[in-house]
């Protein structure tokens, strides 16, 4: 195609698009962002907007679509959720400025930002109560490392890791985007697909540790990283890759990142992705927050407090000191009920300072972000004043971090109005009286007529001409007008030295003065001048905040810590939770334990109360395993999960739903509960079950807590029993962990007599008139039967099917008792002769009582007649 066939604007578009092939290019055209060619086709379909055409390229019409620039954020969010990236291309000059370079000059445009899943900062694009992590992973020889950052809050972390730990850690973080080297293997891609994270390949140069170290030093303005910790080459590589990617996507405007915190894998309770799904920690099986543990326990009143709670639940600590310190915070808030309620009322007024800081650092902030810092610091000061006296260690430190911002707070108080507008370009956010020149410009802008009227009075007094007027038109601007008979006075000395003749008309003569001309210029530019002054003041306030970003960030984190303590305390008091005893022992004793999510659901429904149960997996040494039997629907899975959740809550520093609890530190929680398949990878339900079981048996250590439900049920009876049997023995003999093992294989109950650390328990039921009643009580001992047929009846299977199943079951059980086995009975069972459905009973005619009721009109009966009628009907029924 000849270059001449391409318009200058389209040539510019194609050049910019060539540099951003992997993103949809939002090309600014006045009040719209427009997209062309394949971008337009893809965007129109994803956003459900009209696809039109604009001009021709290479002889074919150019597809085009567009969205209003003021509503672009909503479209960004839709595209990001559908897997797209967006390159935002802005006009860097006005059309008038472009014309100065030539009549056909194209307005200069540049990509100012790449919008990707891990680099969002706007409130409208983020969930206020959740982090939005961008992560990076690499392997260097025998080392591997994972780093992650939330640019909306500045949190920056790194940890050494083994490849097998990547998936569990990504599940813990819930990162939105993962940076990897561009030759990432299929295992990484499978992991990304499983966890729902967007995979972004970068060149090896981005992960180079030497370049990374230089980037980090420049970012944090230090000569050495030693003060931050000792980092491996892999750790430096992933941190450097994140900084490099942020530089690329933010076009040089790096966010306000905190110094990197190095985490140890052993510092948090290890929970793999399957266990997180099974326990529904932060997301229910249905995919939402409702029904999850986080949704049930979140009583925080600030966004930062909610994000802190999610971090604690996603990664409970294994450091005993940290656990006890956090628990002491909650205990203090439980005991100080009036103080707690007062603090929660104050915290409700605290804005999200972390995210306001980040937007200001990226130059995406506005006056409301300034106000958020002002209001947040004001609440911090009030809360610090309220929190006095003898405080727990963490609360005392948090209280100290809330103070020391008086000068900045006063500056913002003096400068800002109470409710600023969203955008700095709108103006009107600086308080009157803060800046004299701004006040003057506003007066001229808003009260120009009054100023002119005052000047007119001055001119009239000076000349003695009371009919003198100051007027305005589009040709002369402001001018002084008088009648012809007074003109000679103004054109004669000494007034002629002040009043300059401009124009003579048939009926009037017009003059101006130097003062009036200067005032006219100021009035005409007053609006623009006022806005310019406000922008300068905004930049000054922004700089003042960023100069104290570290201490402001500490205050924001202190507010989150206080909010979390008060929220967990409010939950504990309202739900009657207890303070668990957590220590370094092998103890695991829970009295009256309850499932927090199920219990709350039952309360909302106004139905039956939750049946609490005890659990004791204490062992001085070796394994401690309960083999749990009982029918489906009896509550085995709930019992398994609730004990895992109680351990997790205890190590998150929370109170727990029980009468009492003594938890020896748990290093890992593994859960294999529920059945599902993975059709995309060709895995059956049984295959998924075996993969997850293998991961548990290969990884669980002697401080792990393992909950397993119905291992082996996805295959033939004897195969399944054999696998379940061997799994239990391995947990006992090799892993030597604490475990709850639920099964329908009653044959396994004999293991309790053979394995020293195993014990039988069952969920009690009661039979009444052929019906099974679930008591939901866990007791020592083994179930005598499974009650599967009764459960099938409750589920609504046709009566004929239920009866047939009962008869087959009786024959199979008789065969087992006679040691004939099921196979010997197959020929005796007419398996293809289903019991016919019972014939419908003939419809009965109306009874004598019904006939009598037809003739009765209750409204016409006296009390005595009604009583006599009741006796009559009773006699008829007996007859």
Automatic annotation (TrEMBL):
ATP binds at residues 630-637. The keyword DNA repair applies. It holds the Pfam family MutS_I. One of its GO terms (molecular function) is ATP-dependent DNA damage sensor activity. One of its GO terms (cellular component) is cytosol. Residues 837-846 have a biased composition (Low complexity). Residues 837-858 are annotated as: Disordered. Residues 704-720 form the DNA mismatch repair proteins mutS family domain. It comes from the Bacteria. GO terms for biological process: mismatch repair. Keywords: ATP-binding, DNA damage, DNA repair, DNA-binding, Nucleotide-binding. This protein is involved in the repair of mismatches in DNA. It is possible that it carries out the mismatch recognition step. This protein has a weak ATPase activity. PANTHER family: DNA MISMATCH REPAIR PROTEIN MSH1, MITOCHONDRIAL (PTHR11361:SF34), DNA MISMATCH REPAIR PROTEIN MUTS FAMILY MEMBER (PTHR11361). Belongs to the DNA mismatch repair MutS family. This is DNA mismatch repair protein MutS.
